[in-house]
């Protein structure tokens, strides 16, 4: 079931349905109504605790309300919350100040970006990717462009990589993997259903799943063998849905490409030389 509500319509919809819910579901729905802005940042277990109900009750409540699940409700509440807020983060000094303030914010966030990375996870990820027979790179929504770029970069290093863009093609690709292959999956929220399904299917085939995400307690992280978690300072689920996580993900992937280049040694050098030869032959005067 999928809910298609106009912006601003989530809370009124819940309010209109709540009388018909069972008692446990009604308690959960009351939390949605009382704390709509908080729900965006709360896990389903936190909602369950607030309602004095079980996590399963939260999922059932969302379905009874007509939503596909809790994650869909969170996204729609994030949308409505963003619509309701006054315009923010506008500088009186104009576009240049906004641009430079963005650079400053990124610089101040560097420590937060790497706080959840570990030497073991990064080393395992690089070793696994370098030794893979083939690699499927998956990203959906705002992460799709990162997946395409990462795929191109890895192929330039001599790795057998491809990045299907269609969700059905992604599902087919991961089902053809073996225990000698890797699925590299990029998702800021870690809650995109197509990406999570791909991770689960890849693991069923015995492939190693390496994920890049901003939330450690996400469905994608749980479905991964190696989860590389990076985020901005003060990262929120609501902001991540729009733009924030792409910045640390780009930097992390850039770092992984540098580490892969080092790990692959002569193989990467030969592949990069071939790539540069092709590029040079296609440059204008």
UniProtKB/TrEMBL annotation:
InterPro entries: Homeodomain-like_sf, HTH_RpiR, RpiR-like, RpiR-like_SIS, SIS_dom, SIS_dom_sf, WH-like_DNA-bd_sf
Record's keyword annotation contains Transcription: yes
Pfam family, one: HTH_6
Keyword vocabulary terms for this entry: DNA-binding, Transcription, Transcription regulation
CDD domains in the record: SIS_RpiR
Residue ranges constituting the HTH rpiR-type domain according to the UniProt record: 8-84
Residue span, SIS domain: 125-266
Protein name: MurR/RpiR family transcriptional regulator
Protein species of origin: Rhodococcus navarretei
């Amino acid at each position: 079931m999928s809910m298609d509500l106009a912006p601003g319509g989530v809370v009124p919809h819940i309010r209109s349905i709540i009388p018909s819910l069972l008692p446990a579901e009604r308690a959960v729905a009351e939390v949605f109504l009382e704390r709509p802005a908080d729900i965006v940042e709360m896990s389903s277990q936190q909602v369950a605790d607030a309602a004095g109900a079980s996590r399963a009750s939260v999922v059932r409540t969302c379905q009874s309300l007509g939503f596909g699940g809790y994650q869909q409700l969170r996204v729609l509440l994030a949308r409505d919350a963003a619509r309701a807020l006054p315009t923010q983060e506008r500088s009186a000094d104009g576009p240049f100040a906004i641009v430079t303030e963005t650079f400053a914010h990124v610089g101040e966030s560097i420590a937060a970006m790497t706080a959840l990375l570990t030497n073991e996870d990064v080393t395992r990820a690089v070793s696994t990717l370098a030794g893979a027979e083939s690699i499927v790179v998956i990203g959906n929504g705002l992460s799709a462009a990162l997946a395409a770029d990462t795929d191109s970069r890895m192929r330039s290093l001599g790795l057998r990589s491809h990045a299907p863009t269609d969700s059905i093609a992604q599902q087919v690709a991961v089902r053809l993997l073996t225990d000698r292959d890797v699925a590299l999956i990029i998702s800021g929220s870690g809650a995109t259903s197509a990406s999570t399904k791909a991770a689960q299917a890849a693991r069923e085939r015995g492939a190693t799943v390496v994920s890049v995400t901003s939330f450690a307690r996400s469905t994608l992280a749980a479905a991964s063998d190696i989860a590389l978690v990076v985020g901005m300072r003060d990262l929120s689920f609501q902001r991540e849905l729009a733009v924030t996580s792409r910045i640390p993900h780009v930097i992390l992937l850039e770092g992984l490409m540098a580490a892969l280049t080092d790990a692959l040694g002569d193989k990467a050098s030969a592949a990069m030389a071939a790539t540069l030869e092709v590029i040079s032959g296609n440059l204008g005067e």
